[in-house]
Amino acid sequence: MKKYFVFPFLFSALALAGCEDVVDVTLDEGSSQLAVDGLVTDQPGPYEVVLSKTAAYFNNVPTPRVSGATVTISDNEGNVERLTEVAPGRYVTRTLQGKIGNHYVLDIQAEGEQYRAETDIKRVPDIDSLDQVFKEESAFDDEGYYVRYYGPETPGRGDYYRFKIYRNDTLLNKPSDLLVRSDEFVEGNYIGGIEMHEDPFKVEDKIRVENCAITSDYYFFLNELYIQTNNGGMFANPPANLRTNIVNVNPASTRKAVGYFGGMGIRTKEIVIRDGK
Question: Strand ranges (DSSP E) for the chain?
Fold first, then answer.
């Protein structure tokens, strides 16, 4: 999508820029924390939990992975599975199958500490269909094909969604592609013809849309993540810590964790873009 920004004070800002001093910023690196990225869904596994360590703000090298941890996922039906480490810091399930309506607990024993997180897999409405619409170039749109979404929203307030879009089996994963929505303005209504991405697609592109139902807390975590990763420019707010559902089970311990263990109910639909101007 085309974006235009007008700054009336541009020339004043440029003039002042020549007077700026270079300031070297020294930050307190603090202690390294366990970082958790995990997900369980109602789709066939395996499900994955990735453990790493946080790093200094200006450290541009990959964060170290945490190996040798004991990682288990259990549910309210009495199923418990210990995950297998298949690569440094990457732990996967073998047999666990997520189900809508179930509650899941992630337990991690790592570096002498025990951490826990809990989540649910929420109900998710089906996607009725996707279609395409061609747009000529304009002040607001680039020329090309745009994909539109059709489907019901589940009655009852308090539903939250993440939409994932894949082009030719590759997830669109730029910071601006993180799309989360609540049912605040569509509660129980039919969603008819909402465009799913601001950039156009090309003929023969295969587009897959996943509607992922998530918990309210996971929604706010992803929304905060979106704001942080798209928070740039001269008026940007300072970075802040994101919420987390990973807790150290020992309340006296000073070793905390960051990241999130989420649950998703997922429904999927695909479309191949055809030439039809």
Answer: 34-41, 48-53, 70-75, 80-82, 84-87, 90-92, 103-110, 113-120, 129-135, 144-152, 160-167, 170-171, 179-182, 190-195, 206-214, 247-248, 257-272
- Per CATH, the number for 30-123+241-264 is 2.60.40
Do residues 264 and 219 make contact, with C-beta atoms less than 8 angstroms apart? no
Q: Domain locations in the chain?
A: 30-123+241-264, 129-214+268-272
- Residues 130 and 150: beta-carbon distance below 8 Å: yes
pTM, 2 dp? 0.83
pLDDT per position as a tens digit, 61-109: 678 999 999 999 999 999 999 999 999 999 999 999 999 999 999 999 9
The residue among 105, 125, 123 whose CA lies nearest residue 115 is 105
Contact 229, 216 (CB under 8 A): no
The tens digit of pLDDT for each residue in 125-157 reads 999 999 999 999 888 889 999 999 999 998 888
Contact criterion met (CB below 8 Å) for 167 and 239: no
Note whether 51 and 63 are within 8 A (CB).
no
